[in-house]
Amino acid sequence: MGDTIPFMTQSKSFPPRWELFCTVVDNYGDIGICWRMARQLVLEHQLHVRLWVDDLVSFQRICPQINPKQSRQWCRGVEVRHWATPFPAMASAELGDVVVEALGCVLPEGTLAAMVAREHTPVWINLEYLSAEAWVSGCHGMASPHPQWPLTKYFFFPGFNRGTGGVLREHNLLQQRRAFQADPVAQGRFWRSLGVPVANVHELRLSLFGYDTPEVAELVQVWSEGLRPVRCLVPEGRLAQQLLLCLGVESAQVGDSFTWGSLTVHLLPFLEQDGYDRLLWACDLNFVRGEDSFVRAQWAGRPLVWQAYRQGEGVHLIKLEAFLQRYCSGLPKIAADDVRGFWQAWNRGEGVAEWWPPFLTRREQLTEYSEKWADELGDLGDTVTNLVLLCEKYL
Predict the structure, then answer these.
(1) Confidence tier at 1 by pLDDT (50, 70, 90)
(2) Could you tell me if 383 and 37 are in contact, meaning their C-beta atoms sit under 8 angstroms apart?
């Protein structure tokens, strides 16, 4: 296949060889999830993984080692390939033993043909988006015969309930996080690397990562007028621009900081994944969005606020409510009501100023609860290990 570095050309190999197909959407969540999965498959399961990505420029934002000009490269043990259009013909001997169609992307026709021609048909996985909705458990692992090709794919649903694929997590993640949070020297070194003062006990330090929303203006006002200093760390992007305009700042560069009353805003670069994890670990509270940052915030041991990816007809609010029911089930009713109220206000775009004070009073309680929640998620098993076990059934 042109300049491909082929995998071993035997029809069935051990350890199995994996093909992971990913298209990049505008908010980087899809590639973020796939890159974490690819790394974990290699590092923890010693598998051969080839990651096909259609947009290497965006990929580079979360992994600076990626060279967008190279159609084939190796990074952290993963073979990274540019998913070009048209997709080059693929010989059946080149194809891996497992083919993962990730997060709504569609496999190239040539790949389907190679799957059919292969002596041992690959296990075909349709990796779905994470959801807490009740129906997910019933669909997880279901087989779906292709209407035109003699192939069957299996649906894999990550989730928060038993009977799902669980949540993405490296085996040593919590150990690393707890060690970092117990080490003020490591935290100080991290803050200095970002050009941010070391944290102090008097301020509320929070990360703000989300989709643009007019409600950020209300938060800016509440934070700036509050008695407690707030240090807001926001990565460059549309939400950062919107927030800075509320402060009267029309242009800014990464590294700049601005103060308005009790609020200080730092404009951060778009961090690579390991750095972003540490930002979540180091903050008192984290605003997150979509799926990848949402999951990482749940492992951070800190209170969080999730902004679901907006969908037509309020579908995202259904997903939000499903998660809130699951997440709040272990909280006392008053605390659960305050969490639910602020999260819904942030997602609906109304009422955040009203719900912020009662939500903030729950911070210490939610910090303690986050450890219990992480243990519950851990009992489900992690997504990658569960996926490997499912594929082993059919190999």
Answers:
(1) very low
(2) yes
- The vertex-202 CA angle with 199 and 205, nearest 5°, equals 50
Q: What is the dihedral of CA 27, 258, 362, 209, to 10 degrees?
A: 0
Q: Could you read off the pLDDT of 35-60 as tens digits, one per residue? A: 999 999 999 999 999 999 999 999 99
> Which of 55, 101, 218, 291 is flagged as catalytic?
291
Whether 30 is catalytic: yes
Q: Which is nearest to 341 in space by CA: 324, 329, 327?
A: 324
Paired strand residues for 206: 232, 285
Q: CA-CA distance, 111 to 93, in Å (whole number)?
A: 11
Tokens 């979360």 belong to residue: 62
Respond yes or no on whether the N-terminal peptide bond of residue 303 is cis (omega within 30° of 0): no
Contact 94, 9 (CB under 8 A): yes
Instruction: Mark whether 371 is an active-site residue.
Output: no
67-125 residue pLDDT tens: 999 999 999 999 999 999 888 777 767 899 999 999 989 999 889 999 999 988 999 99
Cα angle at 353 between 349 and 359, to 5 degrees? 100
High-pLDDT (> 70) share of the chain, %: 95
- In angstroms, the CA 12 to CA 97 distance is 7
